[in-house]
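Quick one, T. Sequence first:
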Amino acid sequence: MKIYNYIIVLLVVIVSCKNKEAVLHEDKIVKSTMPSIKDKIDNLMDSRNKEVIVVAHRGDWRNAPENSLQAIQNCIDMGVDMVEIDVRQTKDGHLVLMHDATLNRTTTGKGLVSDWTLDSLMTLHLKDGLGVATAHKIPTLKEALMTTKDKILVNLDKSYNIFDQCFEVVKETKTADQVIIKGRKTRAEVEKEFGHYLDKIHFMPVLSVKNGYETIVEDYFKGNAPIAFEFTIAKDTLETESYFKELRESGSSVWVNSLWPRLNGGHDDEKAANDINTYQWYIDNGVDIIQTDRPELLLRFLRNRGLHK
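Structure tokens:
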């Protein structure tokens, strides 16, 4: 009887070890098939393929404080293509990640970011989405770009007016091929204010889909075609499918945000949380870059349809 029990225990141990090996092997397969930064850059440069680029708004802020290093790392780990982060300048000229002009909502401090020095900001803690203080600290732009380096694309929001300073950090971290900046600017404005950067980094115009937007797009194509156009669509009343597909055939990707209903004609993330097929609207309309507050949900939708690796 003792020998019989010993054999049973031995078999259980062997099976358990095999299962662990299988899990580890499967994990290695998942990690080895995760797109590289070269794959992500190549995908960004190819507006004509079927791969949809997923952008995480302020990082994975549902599971870590927005604009935190952990929120960025979570996006890298789940296979997000691009992370959107916001840049502000401190009183002593340093660049940090912060969406609001003030510290009140997302940190344990109060007042304008621009009234605080970097050293003083480092004494604060970030709050989570419920407003509860965490152990996370406010990252500098350099720390954020070093976290993303060779791993994930980056959209630097709120950076246009301070891009001279931002670009110095981009150069220092050697991440220019991973970075996009954007702005609601005409081609003439961009070339006047930003022209000396246009051959060094990607710029994306932001436009509202309303009367006259096609003229602005057409004017951009008189120069070098932008890597992408970001469109806000207040009402789902305009036929955009054929127009967006024409843009992609011309070499520019089409970016639409799924964040709030006013940006996408009502096809937003919260609606998708109840019905994941809400995201099909973006595919049907030829959108190939989607910025989302629910990256895990969107990735699941796209991967189930063969539209994301």
